[in-house]
User: What shape does this take?
Amino acid sequence: MFSYNQSSTPSGRQWIALSTQSVGIGQGGTVSMIARVSLVDYRGRAIIDTYIRPTAPVASYRTPQTGIEPHHLENGIPFNQARDFVASAIGGKILVGHSLWQDLHVLGLTHPAIDTRDLGLFLPFRVTLRNLNNIIGLQTLMHQLMRRQITVSVQDSVGYPLCQEP
Assistant: This one.
């Protein structure tokens, strides 16, 4: 018989959602470099939502998808400062997001797998949508499971984490 121990359920203070947006560097702008980071707490309050100053010349701002333009990054915070803040904020927390491996990669961070909830990899969602072998996009998940439409024109770096609350 299965018994449920409610005391082992994480409290809201232990959850944090992450979303990043990247611009393209290198030839053709095919290499992603972080340009914006957003962290949202369990209540939907932005902990940080900031642009990050580029550390290399930007070849593609990916403006149609991100809404990011050169003037956004001119006053961005230094990459190391953003990375250190995010590392401190997510330490010891359960990290929620979509395609988190990409967000963590552009930040140069890792997070324990046991404390990571990636909606793109969550098997029950993939089973429900009969798509076991593919990562399902956040827009599709939101539309199919919650009947909510997100990303009408450009990505919303704060809105994405709000969609991902546990």
The first strand starts at residue 15 and ends at 25. The first helix runs from residue 63 to 66. The chain has a mean pLDDT of 80.
